[in-house]
Specification:
The protein has about 240 residues and is an alpha+beta fold. It is built from 7 helices and 10 strands. It folds into 2 domains: about 60 residues, Winged helix-like DNA-binding domain superfamily/Winged helix DNA-binding domain (Arc Repressor Mutant, subunit A, Orthogonal Bundle); about 150 residues, 3-Layer(aba) Sandwich (Chorismate lyase). The protein has a 6-stranded antiparallel beta sheet. Helix 1 crosses helix 3 and helix 2 crosses helix 3.
């Protein structure tokens, strides 16, 4: 005899609301429908609605405030320490969901302003995502000899700096500049933003142990998902 196992009503309500939050129907900071409205919407008792909301609160998806309602909690920002040489992926891999890197472009190009010998470079365009959400678009120029040991398949879901070090290159220092920049059409497309949305752009050059440039990069980070942290030190130098 086949027995039909009924799903608890509160689970149906919580799963539906969880899906609505994930899809963006209810955005961070927005208030969910009131308990009476949810009771009518799902055709369940108020105690069932309260149990479902308690489940979402325990999962960290919502915050309940007496007299104000139930709000979708803001998503946690991915934090990056700008003065550390390691990239965003290495810095957040232990504190966020799965970090993925997708190679969008891999090509040898003319590069007249190359800081190394010659006028060409290996150009990479990569998209970094956290928990399936795009957070950074990275354009990188490398000495053309790097094409001898790099390819698009190797770079997918891999750390570029780790691969460069494995090849024998040393990465010792970097000069960097941070600017707030409106997203271009291409950046908006890949980062799932509106054209003109704010991004944090990190540009720089990486140098080896002999102070020779080995990497030029430009990374556009989603301004709503990534924050830059800086360590400040007291300036103890005597005033002139």
């Amino acid at each position: 005899m086949n027995a039909t196992v009924r799903r608890p009503l509160h689970r149906h309500v919580s799963e539906t609301l969880r899906g609505d939050i994930a899809s963006g129907r209810y955005k961070p900071g927005e208030v969910l429908p009131s308990e009476p409205d949810l009771t009518q919407l799902f055709g369940v008792s108020r105690s069932v609605v309260r149990q479902a909301l308690a489940t979402l609160q325990a999962e960290g998806l919502v915050e309940r405030s007496h007299g104000r309602g139930t709000f979708v909690k803001p998503r946690e920002l991915h934090r990056r320490v700008v003065q550390e040489l390691d990239g965003l992926g290495a810095q957040i891999s232990g504190e966020a969901g799965p970090v993925h890197t997708t190679v969008l472009e891999f090509e040898l190009v003319a590069y007249e302003s190359a800081p190394w010998d010659g006028d060409s470079a290996l150009r990479l365009m990569r998209l970094r995502s956290v928990d399936s959400e795009p957070v950074a678009l990275i354009e990188t120029y490398l000495p053309p000899a790097c094409a001898e040991f790099l390819n698009a398949d190797v770079l997918n879901d891999a750390s570029l700096h780790s691969l460069l070090r494995s090849s024998g290159m040393t990465l010792e220092s970097s000069t960097r500049t941070v600017r707030a920049v409106a997203a271009s059409a291409a950046e908006a497309k890949h980062l799932d933003l509106g054209i003109g949305a704010p991004t944090l752009v990190l540009k720089g050059t990486t140098f080896d142990a002999d102070d020779k440039p080995v990497e030029v990069f430009r990374t556009a980070h989603r301004g709503d998902r990534v924050a830059f942290d800086l360590d400040a030190l007291s300036n103890t130098r005597a005033a002139p």
